[in-house]
């Protein structure tokens, strides 16, 4: 089965992002707005309980994270993805690296880890430039405390659903 690990931001931020994604992201119906912590990976069902224990250990040693969204950016020229930039990058990168190190799974990450929430993807060059230009004029100031992340699995129709939620911090 295919799994992934992601943070789902607050409903307030998801609603704002979804108002844009429904126009610009063909994956809109497959998964809510999220910050990918670990790219999709395949694992046998018999091994998932071991991976869950490894993820729990990472969650327990990670304090809740204050995140900030302050601007729209793009991965162009690598690909025509428009996204909300997430700060602080270092804290999220450290969490990503701990998950990579502690979880005994192979993944096929094509790109370096960049914390973000996708707004649009698979855009033509012209669409990309238009969307990026218009969104850069909008205010995306948002801050929140993230205290959990989710292990997801992919259904047969390509959509993703939560398998288990992990709370950050020693008390959780």
UniProtKB/TrEMBL annotation:
Assigned EC number: 3.1.-.-
Name listed for the protein in its UniProt record: Putative phosphoesterase JOD45_000248
Motif stretch (HXTX 1): 34-37
SUPFAM superfamilies reported in the protein's UniProt record: LigT-like (SSF55144)
Active site: 34 (proton donor), 116 (proton acceptor)
EC class: hydrolase
Residues spanned by motif HXTX 2: 116-119
